[in-house]
Amino acid sequence: MNYLRLLPLVCLFGFLSASDAADKPVKVKPSKVSAAKGRDREKLFTPWMTQNELVKMNDEKEKTSEQMIYFEYHEGKRQFRAIHSKAIRFNGWWWNTTFGEKEMEDEVNTYKARGYAPLFVVLEGNYYRMLFVKPEQLSEAQKLLKELGVEPPVLK
To answer: What is the pTM of this model?
Structure first.
């Protein structure tokens, strides 16, 4: 039998199984946030504000080459605060706060399918906070957050 004729089929099936694995939903273990670095983060946060105010601030900061790299949501106040940095400019990013583990994992899987990677996924109170970046900027962004005591999420 001529096995070379089977090579294209083997390559095709190997490619399909590899891409299927990449498209499978992942489980997410949220990021760890170091309490020891809390003071360092606290000095960098903006004041608490509404989501609309934070969106406006992000737009203004973008003009001065500052990028939001981390944020918190206060459930009681229903407000946000953020940390911005001039050390990086994302070439595509998305941030969100969601309620519930299933909803968070759905969000992570949706943005993974769109070509983004979660920079952080933090559970605080009843809400998950997350920020997504393009994979080619993930390592550089994670270094910035590690300095602030924020570890990356674990995807399983």
So the answer is: 0.81
